[in-house]
Amino acid sequence: MSSNLYIGLVHHPVYDRRREVVTTAVTNFDIHDISRCARTFGLGGFFIITPLESQVELVERIISHWRDGEGAAYNPTRKESLSLVRVSRSIDEADQEISRLHQRRPKRVATGASPHPDSIGYDELRGLLKDEETPFFLLFGTGWGLTQEVKDSSDYVLAPVEGKGYNHLSVRSAVAIILDRLLGDRINSSE
Fold first, then answer.
1. Where do the H-state alpha helices sit in the chain?
2. Is 100 exposed, middle or buried (0-12, 13-18, 19+ CB in 10 A)?
């Protein structure tokens, strides 16, 4: 289990396609699919970060249906994965919750589709995650990605997932790939 690792799906501050800072809408698919990834890889939690009260209420209503309502009886495994979901109004608020749980500030790790001059690789972050005393907070941006301010305030920026010339994954896909690279079982092919 990697209970010292948390992920945050950031809906603000993120860029739109014109690189203006915006707040994006929460999607039902992201809540369900990313919570399943968080549960699959044994994360400590999954924060949905939005300052909009209407979006906070939407997320809470969806989670309540699957955790406490008819959905809980209909699909117990979904209830289990959604138990990891928390809603925060800012990155700092989520950061403070993780700090309270671990009695120390988490190391923030920003992600993005574009190369960053000071990025770290997956092997390096995998090594850092072995320090189970230190919590880590892996941030994923919606829209057109995390703002430069978020990246600058992070302790690390993770190298992007590299494809074959096209680099525009859904955030759900990026989360799954990155978590597998960081926490998935690695089999030595020579054995």
1. 28-40, 53-67, 70-74, 76-82, 91-102, 122-128, 148-152, 171-183
2. exposed
pTM here? 0.92
Phi, psi of 79 (to 5 degrees): -55, -45
pLDDT at 191: 45
CA distances from 140 to 48, 64, 67, 154, 178 (A): 10, 24, 24, 12, 10
CATH node for 2-183: 3.40.1280.10
Average pLDDT on 84-104 reads: 97
Hey, what are 91's tokens?
Answer: 């990155």
Rg of the chain over all Cα atoms, to the nearest angstrom? 16
Among 143, 153, 164, 152, smallest CA distance to 117 is for 152
Measure the CA–CA gap between 113 and 184, rounded to whole angstroms.
21
